[in-house]
Amino acid sequence: MFYDDLFCSLTNSFYPKNSSNNSPTSTLTELTETETTNEKELLGDISTRLWFTYRKGFSQINGSGPDSDQGWGCMIRCGQMLLAETFIRLYLGRDFKWDSENTGNPFYWKILAYFKDEKLAPYSIQQIAMMGVGEGIQIGKWFGPNAIAQVLNKLTTFEESNHLRFYIAMDNSIFIDEIYELMKTCNKCIKCKQHKKGICEDWSPLLLIIPLRLGLNEFNQDYTEPLKKCLETKYSVGMIGGKPNQAYYFYGYLDDDLLYMDPHECQPYVPNFVEEMNDSSYHTNIMWKLKFSQLDPSIALGFVCKYEEDFLDLIDILQKNIVKKGDLHSLFEIANKRPDFDNISACDSIDFQSDDEFVLI
């Protein structure tokens, strides 16, 4: 059987194009013998990803708030999954595979502990919900893709144990000079012990997040192919989005289906969080699928660049394959620097001697 047409973000595994399984989900128990080897590889890759879902029974948020995020925390959990995938790529590498019988890697446990449902964990539901108040989101209210990106960025500035930098490309635009300026400046919220006068000399790992709205009330399917190309890049850590009123974390696609992880199962809070505990509730081997046509137009793409060379390579890939001048369906723009609109006058911007027709409206 020939295997092709699947490009999972950060995945080199393949799924059969003409598989007889047309159900919305696939699990290892549904495989035929001829499909088992390749399916095992793919589903093993899925089960390695950290799966964050609704939880119940954790300490009340802000002392008197909810003790469960069921019904409102799905986008928060999707943001956690995208960030966790970023840390796995940076600190464990793409070849890392989770094994329920052997999870002794200390970096794995450190990453998982970042997201435990306890107030002091850097990216816990409690920390995110409280930081969301500063973004105008009341505790217990739903986050959008841009809001969760902004909150995770702010929380990262307080986390001294990693030197991750966020760049959130607002207005559908990436400005390269701003990213280099970001890399030069040490974290303002913590005392940097490595660099003098707050000036960094080395590249820090970069998480590039691009919030987009690809349509007004529904997804514009003209953006399907560019979106697929984004998920194909080796620097992709997926995207967050969903369908109306339901958030998902997407990590790849198969033909006309997006592949995602679903945070909507409500599981009990895990107390006494320690290394070598049973961590099976943070993993799944289910492959959920969603048609591109069903996608909500509000999404946020994620790319990780561990080194400066990775960033330059990513920009080159995006400019050659995705962001093309004159293409009406480019997902976003890339420029060397932000235009200085304050120094552009109306007379400078319009040539009244031009033969070109123009209309004032």
Concise summary:
The protein has 361 residues and is α+β, with helices and mostly antiparallel strands.
Polypeptide structure, described:
This protein has 361 residues and is of the alpha+beta class. The protein has one domain. Helices cover 27% and strands 17% of the residues. The protein has nine helices and 13 strands. The protein has helices at 36-48, 74-91, 106-114, 125-133, 145-156, 176-184, 224-232, 308-321, 346-349, and strands spanning 6-8, 25-26, 55-56, 165-168, 173-175, 206-213, 236-243, 246-254, 257-261, 267-268, 287-291, 298-305, 333-335. Strands 1, 2, 4, 6, 7, 8, 9, 11 and 12 form a nine-stranded mixed sheet that branches. Strands 3-10 form a two-stranded parallel ribbon. It has a two-stranded parallel sheet with strand order 5-13. Residues 40-315 form the Peptidase C54 catalytic domain. InterPro entries: Papain-like_cys_pep_sf (IPR038765), Peptidase_C54 (IPR005078), Peptidase_C54_cat (IPR046792). Keywords: Autophagy, Cytoplasm, Hydrolase, Protease, Protein transport, Thiol protease, Transport. Its EC number is 3.4.22.-.
